[in-house]
Design a protein that fits this description.
Layout (H helix, E strand, L loop, with lengths): L1 H10 L10 H10 L3 H14 L4 H19 L3 H15 L11 H19 L19
Length: 138
């Protein structure tokens, strides 16, 4: 019985340190092109979230993971996750959580098309100008 209680207590996700907004931290890492790290920070928040933001955060996490895949040369994974992430985020208002999702998703759509062209051999350059996430807190 004691072992089960200890095991359950180890499974609880820790709260982030006071004063650090994990969304801002994830955005900062994303904008610095540390996509895997951004994914990890946002995923920690996503695991604790039970409300309306959960699906939006999942979409943002998938976009982070997509650009990480692109950095590692996995074009199929990048294209797939860009599409899935954009679908989830697109269901929310354009400025949800203060994030300029409309601008981000416009860039994501362009990148997804460029990646498709790369896969078909229509695009020689395998370079993307990664988007930046802008956030305004009201």
């Amino acid at each position: 019985m004691i072992v089960a209680v200890l095991f359950r207590s180890l499974m609880v996700e820790p709260e982030p340190p006071a004063g650090l907004d994990p969304v801002d931290q994830g955005i900062r890492l994303f904008n610095e092109e540390y996509f895997f790290e951004a994914h990890e920070v946002l995923e920690d928040l996503w695991k604790r979230e039970h409300g309306k933001p959960k699906l939006f955060l999942q979409g943002l996490i998938q976009i982070c993971a997509a650009y990480h895949h692109f950095q590692n040369g996995n074009l199929i994974g990048a294209e797939t996750l860009l599409e899935r992430g954009a679908q989830k985020m697109g269901a929310y208002p354009a400025d949800y959580l203060g994030i300029d999702a409309a601008k981000l998703l416009g860039h994501v759509d362009q990148d997804r098309e460029r990646i498709r062209q790369m896969q078909r051999g229509e695009q020689e350059s395998r370079v993307l100008e990664f988007p930046r996430i802008e956030r305004k807190i009201q």
